Amino acid sequence: MIYALFQLFQDSGIPGVRLMDYITFRAGVSFALAMIIALVFGHDIIRRLQRMQVGEVIRNLGLEGQMKKTGTPTMGGVIIILAILVPCLLVGNLTNVYMILMLIATVWMGSIGFLDDYRKLKYHNKDGLQGKYKVIGQIGLGLIVGLTMWLSPSIVMSENMEVMNQINHETEVVHSLSMVKSPQTTIPFVKNNNFNYEWLTSWMGDSQTAETAGWIVFIIVVIVVVAAVSNGANLTDGLDGLCAGTSAIIGVALAIMAYLGGNIIYSGYLNIMYIPGSEELVVYAAAFIGALVGFLWYNAFPAQVFMGDTGSLTLGGILAVFAILIRKELLIPLLCLIFFIEDLSVIMQVSYFKLTKRKYGQGRRIFKMTPLHHHFQKAGDPAVKCLINFPKLPIPESKIVVRFWIVGILLAALTFVTLKIR
After folding, report:
1. Among 131, 215, 219, 259, which is 20 to 30 Å from 225 by CA?
2. Domain boundaries, the chain
3. Is the dihedral of CA 332, 322, 278, 288 positive or negative?
């Protein structure tokens, strides 16, 4: 809104009116606004949740300090969503297709998470919304994003290519002059870092058929990424500040990638594809990071509020869609490795338990407890048969969270490193 208003006075000669043309300025304003909204309105929202008796239902899992969290207000993800939407609506370019898709993703996943939390609180159990409905919602968002990227004329890219300079015989990176619509993405360790999904369907012969099939494969990948990351973030939300801090770190990395990919000079220097218009995502990412930093003021140990599925499902969906829009979805397994390890730990635990129960008549475990963060929180018990019984003594919750943050920073750094290792 403010951005559109400033555009009306572009030629008025009013000092400072052109500041809104600068992505860095609008990103800074977006970050500050989001953090202020989370800090100022977060307190009032928490008090309202307390009056409404919107308290977390806690099951006794034998973890130190766990039962003290009973009754802590949940659904705090509303704070995050509000702090993201308001700055984006004020200083974001609402005609930009990338910004529109991110706002849709935020509201879409926030609604699914809200319904999940509402059912948990209404029926006083941990079941919430049935899993199939969550999956349907994730598939729906994946289809919206994938089909829009396929059919929208505003979403194009310029492929990076290496050419030999005939004067000094040095290799230079140039971008194609024409903008193309192609299901290409970025992969690490490869010379030009590009992978085209159409290569998987080239055996079909006819170019039009292969192109269509390539986009269909891309849409399937989009759906899988959205479901995997949102579920991973949901499982990671088990300790005070863990999901919010980890998501903020990933958000910073994605914001840098969006800025570089949306700038033809920097994208040429790094030999990555140039995506015109995607620089607007930096404004959104700044609001996302600011909202999480502000939310951590209340969510850090000991938490005054939990984000609930309203927050965790939304954060995962946002990160997934953001990575897809800047064509970095295949870097997600490394960048969001913490989410996937949390996912994988649960899958491994359940599968191993069922396998050993069929084989020995009694189920055994790999970890002391899953998701993985609870494994470090629980004391070792000789009476419980598990493959990994280390550490013997429980690690304090705040220390586990900070260590996971450190791992997240390392993973973000490694993700950038992989783009230069060719």
Report:
1. 259
2. 23-158+197-332
3. negative
Q: For tokens 């043309």, name the residue.
A: 21
Find the helix packing angle between 242-261 and 207-236, rounded to 10°: 150
Query: How many whole angstroms separate alpha carbon 357 and alpha carbon 360?
Result: 5
Sign of CA dihedral 205, 188, 245, 388: positive
What b/e readout covers 110-120, taking b as 16+ CB neighbours within 10 angstroms? bebbbbbbbbb
What pLDDT shows up at residue 363? 84
* pTM exceeding the 0.85 threshold for the entire prediction: yes
Q: State the pLDDT at residue 3.
A: 66
Using omega within 30 degrees of 0 as the cis cutoff, is the peptide bond preceding 391 cis? yes
Q: What is the 3-state secondary structure (H, E, C) of the chain?
A: CHHHHHHHCCCCCCCCHHHHHCHHHHHHHHHHHHHHHHHHHHHHHHHHHHHCCCECCCCCCCCCCCHHHCCCECCCHHHHHHHHHHHHHHHCCCCCHHHHHHHHHHHHHHHHHHHHHHHHHHHCCCCCCCHHHHHHHHHHHHHHHHHHHHHCCCCCEECEEEEECCCCCCEEEEECCCCECCCEEECCCCCCCEEEHHHHHHHHCCHHHHHHHHHHHHHHHHHHHHHHHHHHHHHHCCCCCHHHHHHHHHHHHHHHHHHHHCCHHHHHHHCCCECCCHHHHHHHHHHHHHHHHHHHHHHCCCCCCCCHHHHHHHHHHHHHHHHHHCCCHHHHHHHCHHHHHHHHHHHHHHHHHHHHHHHHCCCCECCCCCCHHHHHHCCCCCCCCECCCCCCCCCCHHHHHHHHHHHHHHHHHHHHHHHHCC
Give the chain's length: 422
Q: What is the mean pLDDT of residues 268-286?
A: 90
pLDDT tens column, 217-273: 999 999 999 999 999 999 999 899 999 999 999 999 999 999 999 988 888 777 788
Alpha-carbon gap, residue 360 to 388, rounded angstroms: 19
Residues 85, 322 contacting (CB under 8 angstroms): no
Single-letter code of the amino acid located at 80: I
